[in-house]
Specification:
- The protein has a single domain (5-199), classed as Cytochrome P450 (Cytochrome p450), CATH 1.10.630.10.
- The protein contains six helices and eight strands.
- The protein has helices at 10-15, 24-50, 63-76, 107-111, 127-131, 154-171; strands spanning 81-85, 90-92, 95-97, 102-106, 172-176, 181-182, 188-189, 195-199.
- The strands form four sheets. A two-stranded antiparallel ribbon has the order 1-4.
- Strand 2 and strand 3 (95-97) form a beta hairpin.
- The longest helix has 27 residues, at 24-50.
- It binds protoporphyrin IX containing FE.
- The site of protoporphyrin IX containing FE has 13 residues, from helix 6.
- The site of protoporphyrin IX containing FE (HEM) has 13 residues, from helix 6.
Length: 202
Amino acid sequence: MNFSYCHNSFSVFLYWGIENPWNSIYIYMLILYLIVKEENMELKRQKTESCEDFSWTDYMSLPFTQNVISETLRMANIINGVWRKALKDVHIKGHLIPEGWCVLTSFISVHMDEQNYDNPYHFDPWRWEKTGAAAVNNNNFTPFGGGQRLCPGLELSRLEISIFLHHLVTSYGWVAEKDEIIHFPTVKMKKKLPITVTPVRT
Ligand code: HEM
């Protein structure tokens, strides 16, 4: 496994507990996990104390968790590009795309471009603190596409991921089996990362 690139998936966040060799990557992932867990535990405590139900906007009150999700979507999105067919000759930035030709717009190329992101191969959720929320709504961040075909499931997806993570880190511990990250054609775990989940007392 290429350890420098292994930062690039949230799977590693799940994966850190497998062998626990205390090298820098695992310590880094452990710190990440603890920050996400603390932020989510705080929300859970508030809800328990106030006896309030969760509401639609609660997930937005988890800034670090949102940064982890954005960074994961940047580095390991399930859709790494989309195809477009030119219906007429298109001139763009000095290039001609002839009528009838297909073009692959590569999201991963945008996300891994050093002109768009410092150290693009580093899994760094803190980068979103520096750039602010506006950075997830611009042309350099395209996990959900853009323009007229922008994914309408954008917010729902973030909400679902947030709910999953909230329950996972606040209510469960887990042990993952040894697995390996595959990068091509999309990022995934070779054995789908089987994990044994156990409820924890909070
Ligand atoms: C992490 C999860 C998701 C990712 C990364 C994602 C990504 C994308 C991307 C890149 C496109 C643009 C495709 C193109 O331009 O050809 C798209 C389109 C679309 N997505 Fe998603 N999507 C996700 C979740 C969802 C969910 C949860 C829904 C519905 C509940 C959804 C519904 C759609 C629909 C209907 C389109 C077509 C929009 C159109 O053509 O006008 N997506 N998605």
